[in-house]
Write a structure and sequence with these properties.
Length: 301
Amino acid sequence: MPEGIIIKALSGYYYVKPLHDGVIVTEEEAVQCRGRGILKKKGTAPLVGDRIIYMLTENGEGMVDEILPRESELIRPQVANVKLAVLLFSVREPDMNLNLLDKFLVHIEHSGLDTLIVLTKQDLEEDDGQATEAVRAMYEEIGYEVMVTSSLNGLGADALRERLAGIISVFSGQSGVGKSTLLNRLVPGLALETGEISLRLGRGRHTTRHVELMDIGNGGFVADTPGFSQLDFLELGVEELSHCFREFASYADSCKFRGCSHLHEPGCKVIEAVQTGEIAGSRYEHYKTFYNEMKDKKRRY
Ligand SMILES: Nc1nc2c(ncn2[C@@H]2O[C@H](COP(=O)(O)OP(=O)(O)OP(=O)(O)O)[C@@H](O)[C@H]2O)c(=O)[nH]1
Ligand SMILES: [Mg+2]
Ligand SMILES: [Zn+2]
């Protein structure tokens, strides 16, 4: 029986792209499939991103027969087998928001996905791009992969496309940073709705909000998630927070007190590293901000 990957789930149907020896043929149409009742009974509903075995039925439709083992399962957006989280932040419009970037990074460290930071709208940068380069240098120093793109002049599009080959990725970032515009650039013929278009049509933003994987044609699939403005820390314990700032680890091991919160304890090596500039001040400030936010939330629940 044929194998495929679910690229969309809508109104009880799963849209499945056939796999041939593990490879997707982009031109091939997705097969519209129903899920077998037994899957529901087992409590395992197929998810977008699942690799599945299906059966062709009459009238060109199909039936999802078996879900192959998942490598990962993301809750928001609900997608299986995601390998890479792509965090998009524009250099301007909206302004670079490092607080939000660090918040996303905390969540991703916690989820265990690989991370790629993409700084978009490079064509809008001022000061010869010094601010952008400073952001890039800071996060590369920590060990994150960073790319710079512009959908206006095409900068970085090929490198990004190459990076996304063969894996499932999710694009995340605030509304308006250019996620859909960049995807339209990566996939010839794709016409996702972007800011301007939806305004021109006089419709609100975020009209269609089902999860869908875009086939970028090199074995890579991307979920374009709605922009979100806020993330909460409900799933994360406050004692786990410092582990999500990966550059703290090598210092935290030598703090004088075990369970050091790195906020005020004497003999704290993290604080020392902030003072000597080895840890970036903005990262540490955000750590403190999130720590206090989490404490406040705990008190309220
Ligand atoms: N100058 C410039 N403008 C861009 C670039 N990329 C996107 N834009 C513009 O930024 C606006 C928002 O782009 P979208 O692609 O709709 O942003 P989005 O991240 O998909 O937003 P949501 O779908 O609301 O989450 C549009 O007006 C785009 O034309 C870029 O690289 N340079
Ligand atoms: Mg969009
Ligand atoms: Zn400490």
